[in-house]
Write a structure and sequence with these properties.
Elements: H1 3-26, H2 29-42, E1 47-56, E2 59-70, E3 78-86, E4 88-96, E5 101-104, H3 106-114, H4 120-124, E6 132-134, H5 148-162, E7 170-173, E8 176-181, H6 183-194, H7 204-213, E9 218-226, E10 232-241, E11 244-255, E12 270-271, H8 273-304
Parallel strand pairs: 6-12
Antiparallel strand pairs: 1-2, 1-11, 2-3, 3-4, 4-5, 5-6, 7-8, 8-9, 9-10, 10-11
Helix pairs in contact: 2-5, 6-7
Length: 305
C-alpha cells in the first residue's frame, strides 16, 4: 500500500476519531443534563405548571399543584395559583414582586368550601373575594419572603453545582437526562442551597436538622431529570424510615407568553386582617338584618290577613 494512502487514511481516522470524541464529550448525559438545566435557568419562559406529591406506606397522599406566571415585561411581577390537597383541597392565590406579596382573600371562601361549610358565612365570605391581604400583615402565610428575582439568581448558582459531579451519576432517559444522587450528594446539595440568597432565609440550625434527618433514611434515592428542550424538570425521591417507604415527586413544565401581564392588586383592594374581619362582620350583620326584616315583613303580612 502506498505510503500516501496510509498517511491519508490514518489522517482521516484520526480526524474522525477526534471529531467523534469531541461529539461524544459534548453529548454525554452529564453534559446534556447540565445544558438542559442551564437552558431552563436562563430561558425566558414565564409560565410554569408544577405538581409536588408526597406519599408513603404510613400516610395518605398529599399534593401541591398549580401555575406560576411572570409578567413578560416586568419579570419580577408574579402570579401564583396553587391547590393544596391534604384529604381536602384548598386553593390559594398569591401575587408578588420583589417588594410585596399579597394573598387573595378568596382563601376564606375556599377554606369554608374545603370544610364543606354551606351556611350563611360561606355565602357571605364570597364578598371578600375581590380583596387581597398584604403578607406583611399576617403571620399565617410566609409569602412575604417570596422574591422572584432572588429565586432566579439562586437557580443559576445551583446549576454550577452539578457540573462537579461524577459523570457516571448521569444517564439518558426517555424524557431527557437524569442525575442520580446518593445521601452524601444530597447533603452537599443542601449545603449549597443553604448558602444561596433564599437559603439564608432559613436558620442554619434548621439546615443542620434537615441534613441530619437524612441519616435515618435507608435506601435513599434522589433523581433529577431535565428535558432535552429545557422546558421540563422532574425530581423523584424515595427512601425508608423505620421500615416505612416514603416518596416525593416533583414535576415542572414551562413555556413562554410574550403578551402575559401580571398586575399587582389595586391599593383600595389591599386590606389588613383586621379590615377583612370588619368587612366580614359588617356583611354578616347586613345579612342577618335582612333576614330579620324579611321575617318581620312576612309575619306582618300574615297578621293583616
Amino acid at each position: 500500500m502506498k505510503k500516501s494512502i496510509v498517511i491519508g487514511t490514518t489522517a482521516v481516522v484520526v480526524v474522525a476519531v477526534a471529531g467523534g470524541g469531541t461529539y461524544m464529550a459534548l453529548h454525554t448525559p452529564k453534559r446534556q443534563f447540565n445544558s438542559s438545566l442551564t437552558k431552563m435557568t436562563e430561558s425566558k419562559d414565564n409560565i410554569a405548571d408544577f405538581r409536588v406529591k408526597v406519599s408513603g406506606d404510613d400516610m395518605s397522599a398529599k399534593s401541591i399543584s398549580g401555575k406560576m406566571k411572570f409578567d413578560a415585561k416586568h419579570k419580577n411581577n408574579m402570579d401564583l395559583v396553587m391547590n393544596v390537597t391534604d384529604k381536602q383541597t384548598q386553593k390559594m392565590h398569591i401575587k408578588a414582586n420583589n417588594n410585596h406579596a399579597y394573598l387573595s382573600a378568596s382563601y376564606v371562601t375556599n377554606t369554608l368550601q374545603a370544610l364543606k361549610y354551606s351556611g350563611a358565612a360561606a355565602k357571605i365570605s364570597k364578598s371578600l373575594d375581590p380583596y387581597w391581604l398584604s403578607a406583611s400583615d399576617t403571620s399565617s402565610y410566609e409569602t412575604s419572603k417570596l422574591k422572584p428575582g432572588k429565586v432566579k439568581s439562586d437557580t443559576s448558582t445551583l446549576t454550577e453545582w452539578f457540573k462537579d459531579l461524577d459523570g457516571k451519576k448521569f444517564e439518558k432517559v426517555s424524557d431527557g437526562y437524569k442525575v442520580n444522587l446518593n445521601k452524601a450528594d444530597m447533603k452537599r446539595l443542601m449545603t449549597k442551597i443553604s448558602k444561596t440568597k433564599s437559603g439564608k432565609d432559613i436558620p442554619k440550625s434548621e439546615w443542620k436538622e434537615f441534613k441530619s434527618s437524612l441519616d435515618d433514611i435507608n435506601g435513599l434515592k434522589f433523581g433529577i431529570t431535565t428535558g432535552k428542550s429545557g422546558h421540563l424538570l422532574k425530581m423523584n425521591f424515595s427512601g425508608k424510615e423505620d421500615g416505612q417507604l416514603g416518596r416525593v415527586t416533583f414535576n415542572l413544565n414551562t413555556k413562554r407568553d410574550d403578551k402575559l401581564r401580571v398586575k399587582m392588586p389595586a391599593a383600595n383592594k389591599i386590606k389588613s386582617e383586621s379590615e377583612l374581619s370588619s368587612i366580614l362582620q359588617d356583611k354578616m350583620a347586613d345579612y342577618y338584618k335582612s333576614q330579620y326584616d324579611n321575617a318581620s315583613s312576612s309575619a306582618s303580612s300574615s297578621l293583616d290577613i
